[in-house]
Amino acid sequence: MPRPMLLAVLVVTTLLTGCSVGAQADAPQAAATSASISTRTTTSPAPTTPPPQLPGGGTQVFPAHRLVGFSGRAGSPALGPLTGDLAAAAEQLRQQSAAYGGDRAVLPVFELIATLAHPSPGPAGTYNAPADDATVQAYLDAARAAGALLLLGIQPGTEDFLPAVQHYERWLTEPDVGLAVDPEWAVDPGEVPGDVFGSTTGAELDSVAVYLDGLVTAHRLPQKVLVYHQLNPGIVRDEQALTEHPGVALVKSVDGIGAAPDKVATYQRVVATLPPFVHAGFKLFYEEDVRSGPLMTPPEVLALVPQPEYVLYE
């Protein structure tokens, strides 16, 4: 073959081979691009689970609800009606709370005295007796059957409030379990609960609120109720250290015992220091109050100023 013709053939062959190799090299990239486009256009967003709600719906406690509750502990009738047959207690609570509705939905509350102050130090030396898991579960099951919140009552003895509360963390990550702390039973080392009045500070209460607020955020929970019971103004010192937390509905429950005028006077003294973000509560005693006169009626309780947003019967 003449040399010019041979050169022409080689050039044409080289060009054809190069195009073929280039096409093969581009094929994986094109396929990957096509697969990527296909994935972007056909993959749907992962479904999101809606956050849990309070009994009856919603994630905020106030102002939609008024809480009405019974307190008690298994095997201890003197501590309130929430003992023995819990289904019967739930029906009694339903009847008692009916008159507290009207402008708000009534949200029933089971306030279990979970950690009970004790006159002896006990195995841990903390002068308290925590409830076992079986007891808490039984009360939670009964509360859920009644459409109620369960509040775990804490009488810490000589233990600090925060570790006494953290003992129940597995329960506090449930959407319908909150807290009720009782500073009257929080005493210093060397003291015995019941021999002296205990106390706490706004800073200690705030540490519990911070802890609860963190659980709400971490577990996407509805608001947690945190009640602190108060018999007289001195039981909570430096209350101004208590601050507002979005995941916590704070309630100060006034616990005075006696005839209606005495209870009202105690209420007025204790709520005089009510922080603006804390809701008022009022406690009635089926036995102790009636020794001095008739039990206050729901209309009398609702006539208090400020109007209680949590009414507890013991």
Strands, count: 11
CATH class: Alpha Beta
Query: What's the alpha carbon Rg, rounded to whole Å?
Result: 32 Å
Which structural category do the helix and sheet elements fall into? alpha/beta
- Helix count equals 8
Please bin the fraction of helical residues.
25-40%
Cα distance spanning the termini: 116 Å
Describe the strand arrangement of the main beta sheet, using strand numbers: 1-2-4-5-7-9-10-11
Number of discrete domains: 1
The gross shape turns out to be globular
Mean pLDDT: 88
CATH topology: TIM Barrel
Low-confidence stretches: 1-42
Biggest sheet, in brief?
Answer: 8 strands, parallel, barrel
- Helix-strand pattern: HEHEEHEHHEEHEEEHEHE
Question: β content, as a range?
Answer: 15-25%
CATH architecture descriptor text: Alpha-Beta Barrel
Keywords for this entry:
314 residues; alpha/beta; TIM Barrel; eight-stranded parallel barrel; two-stranded parallel sheet; 8 helices; 35% helix
Walk me through what this model shows.
- This protein has helices at 3-42, 86-97, 133-145, 161-166, 169-172, 202-219, 260-271, 298-302; strands at 65-72, 105-117, 128-130, 149-154, 177-181, 200-201, 224-230, 236-237, 248-254, 279-284, 310-313.
- With 314 residues, it is α/β, with parallel strands linked by helices.
- It has a single domain, classed as TIM Barrel.
- An eight-stranded parallel beta barrel has the order 1-2-4-5-7-9-10-11, surrounded by four helices. Strands 6-8 form a two-stranded parallel ribbon.
- Helix 7 links the parallel strand 9 and strand 10.
